Amino acid sequence: MNDVSIIGVDLAKNVFQLHGAAADGTVQFRRKLSRLQFQRFMADHPRCVVAMEACGGAHHWAREMQRLGHKVRLNAPRYVKPFIKRQKNDAADAEAIVEASLRPTMRYVEPKTGDQQARALVFRTREQFVRQRTEAINALRSHLYEFGYIAPQGIGHLSRLEVVIEDPVSDLPPLAREICRELLSQIAHLTARIDALKKRIDAIAREGEISRRLQTMPGVGPIGALAVETFAPPMEQFKRGRDFAAWLGLVPRQASTGGKQKLGKTSKMGQRDIRRLLVTGAMAVVRWALRRGAPRNPWLARMLERKPPMVIASALANKMARGIWAMLSRGEDYRGPELGRAA
User: Fold this and answer.
1) What are phi and psi of 274, to 5 degrees?
2) Do 181 and 275 fall within a single domain?
3) Which of 91, 140, 143, 216 is spaced 20 to 30 A from 106 at the CA atom?
4) How many distinct structural domains can be found in the chain?
């Protein structure tokens, strides 16, 4: 056991597969342990590197291993997959985790703290409620369409459907009217929960120094600031703002070969929540710039003369990502031109 310098762990709910190896990759042991046995085994084992995939429960176990004195390496699953030999099973996965972690150029996921995961829970729950409300609204629209009543998409047009449901003159059958009222009640309940979580997010964003600083940038509101603070790794991991933008997937996809540079559409290979919110905020800034009498930014004005708004929003989101890196790296508020209101 003293020769073991790294242990790869394939996590599961109840049974964990361990693969112990020396510094040169030589196999020292393979074990399958229960949840309780795993914790006891790692508590008694000499301090070493513990490598895991960044999957469900990984951040909890990363904190536990760090508490026991081990050094933790969390691997992105897509970086582990190429090291799996032939058949996929728990033992092969644990071995592949070790092989990937022994690569000198491998990049790792930063373990999240309990507070970060709590903020992520607030963010994810709100997103879930929004999806459920959208599903209920679409269901109501489709049901009423079967009776000849139509309304445009979006919650802003829900009142049209309410008028039809409550209108005694409408030819809706009593049973259909009753069920539609149930859907309206569900939509109202979800809206109330979404509003409550939005207020909670606003309060959290006002409390944190990082969130407050991020909101000084046009296009970044409380939800976007919370997403950056929760899901983004420490900015010290990136050498420059371009690297952070690439991590978010806001750069063109490359298919270069033979010294010829070939760039395609935006890669969208990074953190989707932050990327989506930055693009949404950038689109709000672009719409604000299109208004008559709005403050003009030279770069944005030139882009509006040549490109469609959605393309400009993608480019502006890239600039916003670089600006966020600079703000958090230097501990400064936004100092660029006034582009519009925060979204």
Assistant:
1) -65, -45
2) no
3) 91
4) 3
